[in-house]
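It would be a great kindness if you could assist me with a short task in structural biology. The matter concerns a single protein, recorded as an amino acid sequence and a row of C-alpha cells. Could you please explain, in whatever detail you think fit, how the C-alpha cells follow from the sequence? Thank you for your consideration; the sequence and its C-alpha cells are set out here:
___
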Amino acid sequence: MEVRNVPTPLGDARLLVDEAPNPRATLVLGHGAGGGAHARDLAALAAELPAAGITVVRLEQPWRVAGRRVAPRPALLDEGWLAAVPNVDVVGPLVLGGRSSGARVACRTAGRLDAAGVVCLASPLHLPGRPERSRFDELVNSGVPTLVVQGERDSFGRPDEFEPGPYELVTVPHADHGMAVPKTEDQRATLKAVVNAVAAWFGNALGVRLR
C-alpha cells in the first residue's frame, strides 16, 4: 500500500492506494463521519479487489488527517473530496464510493468528477429513528450507475426502507451500519459478501472484465 498526502483548500487529504498489478478500473472510497479509512468494509475491499484488477484508493478527508473528531458540513466534505480525487492516478473507469457519509459525498460529486459509477456502502438513508428526513434524492440523483450495499440491520436505513430507483441494492444478511454481525454469524463471510457484490457489479453494470 502506498500512502501519500495531497493538498486541498481545507488542508491535506490522505490517499491510501492499493494498486492492482494490471489495473482495469479505479475505485476511490471515502470514509464515514464516525470512522476512518480503516473501517472493516473499506479495508476488505482494499485487500481483495486489487487481485481482481481494481485499484482501490481510500481517501481520508482533511478533517480526519488533521486529527479533528467532528466532520464538517456536507459542502466542505464535497470541497475536500473534489480537490483530492483529481490527484488519483486513474486507470480504466473511475468509480467513486464510500461508506455512510462518504457514500453521500460520492453521489453528490459523481457528475463533477466524470465518474463512471458510484458504490454506496451503508448508505445513510436517514438518521436513526428519523425516517421522515430521507436523503433518498442524493442517491437517485447521482446520474451514473449506482450500487448500494446495505446491512440488513442498518439503523440508518434497512434495505426494505429503500424505494425502487435507478440503482442496484444488495442486502448483507445480519449486518448493521458498520457491516458488523452478531457473534453467532461469520464476520469474514459477511465482508467477503460485500467484496463479491462490488466485484460483480463492476462486471455486470460497467462491463469491466475482471480476473
Notes: The helical segments are 40-48, 62-65, 74-84, 101-109, 136-140, 187-206. The first helix runs from residue 40 to 48. The mean pLDDT is 96.
